[in-house]
């Protein structure tokens, strides 16, 4: 039983892996519209991946490409019924399916949406660069142009190809390197079959929502730090009146104030380092950041001044504490005649 199964298995493997011949035919329709005059029906017969014979509705007959194909083409062309059947395929097969394609897919279109943003240029003669990204449009054909103060921009502009998303939609990206001017207007204009009029998106030179949020977070942190510092200062003033105040409590206040000052300094430093990398930022945007940074620095200076004041007070004589003897006091005590 086992030997019979083995023989059958070997026979199956040998038949499966043995070299064979492949014969097939394809039918295709080349068209530019749904009109019959713009449609061509083609049937091709292949033997071992080589086309041997073809019928084209444009010629109305068969054409052979090998010795065997030429003989077969002559035989088919002598048969009026075969030619009539093949010529009818243009309307019966192609026209029918092309109408379905146009109705359900080809005349459909999807409007694009545009995202316009700035980024640091990779290098060159201009300090700023804008990117116009166009997404989710169909069909593929599209035109993207840059408009600056009413004039089309043709220099320092680059484009990507129409990139297929794999779901019938496409995307394209255009880059504009430029030198910002005060009061100028820059727009990205998109022309597409799905749009009744060109889609124009203006570049908003005001600070983006993300930048505004960052500044709000930084300002909130500054206010919170000042409030905490003020609370600590008031706490210190209240405790300074307590004659039994210990050195450990004063040290805790000192460490707290030092931590606050260090936090403000690190916040200002990293905020500056992050924004300094954005070379495409416009002048008035940089001024806003300078104002915020100045506020941080002012808070840092005030905190530092308060800490120095506190340290001077704690190192001096506090009511109820013992006076600190200096070297001159010790010298006078040892040598009273002097």
UniProtKB/TrEMBL annotation:
<dbReference type="InterPro" id="IPR007110">
    <property type="entry name" value="Ig-like_dom"/>
</dbReference>
<dbReference type="GO" id="GO:0006955">
    <property type="term" value="P:immune response"/>
</dbReference>
<dbReference type="GO" id="GO:0042613">
    <property type="term" value="C:MHC class II protein complex"/>
</dbReference>
<keyword id="KW-0325">Glycoprotein</keyword>
<keyword id="KW-0732">Signal</keyword>
<feature type="transmembrane region" description="Helical">
    <location>
        <begin position="291"/>
        <end position="310"/>
    </location>
</feature>
<feature type="domain" description="Ig-like">
    <location>
        <begin position="112"/>
        <end position="201"/>
    </location>
</feature>
<feature type="transmembrane region" description="Helical">
    <location>
        <begin position="215"/>
        <end position="236"/>
    </location>
</feature>
<keyword id="KW-0812">Transmembrane</keyword>
<keyword id="KW-1133">Transmembrane helix</keyword>
<dbReference type="InterPro" id="IPR011162">
    <property type="entry name" value="MHC_I/II-like_Ag-recog"/>
</dbReference>
<feature type="signal peptide">
    <location>
        <begin position="1"/>
        <end position="20"/>
    </location>
</feature>
<dbReference type="InterPro" id="IPR000353">
    <property type="entry name" value="MHC_II_b_N"/>
</dbReference>
<dbReference type="InterPro" id="IPR003597">
    <property type="entry name" value="Ig_C1-set"/>
</dbReference>
<protein>
    <recommendedName>
        <fullName>Ig-like domain-containing protein</fullName>
    </recommendedName>
</protein>
<dbReference type="Pfam" id="PF07654">
    <property type="entry name" value="C1-set"/>
</dbReference>
<dbReference type="GO" id="GO:0019882">
    <property type="term" value="P:antigen processing and presentation"/>
</dbReference>
<dbReference type="InterPro" id="IPR036179">
    <property type="entry name" value="Ig-like_dom_sf"/>
</dbReference>
<dbReference type="InterPro" id="IPR050160">
    <property type="entry name" value="MHC/Immunoglobulin"/>
</dbReference>
<keyword id="KW-0472">Membrane</keyword>
<feature type="transmembrane region" description="Helical">
    <location>
        <begin position="252"/>
        <end position="271"/>
    </location>
</feature>
<dbReference type="InterPro" id="IPR013783">
    <property type="entry name" value="Ig-like_fold"/>
</dbReference>
<keyword id="KW-1015">Disulfide bond</keyword>
<dbReference type="InterPro" id="IPR014745">
    <property type="entry name" value="MHC_II_a/b_N"/>
</dbReference>
<dbReference type="Pfam" id="PF00969">
    <property type="entry name" value="MHC_II_beta"/>
</dbReference>
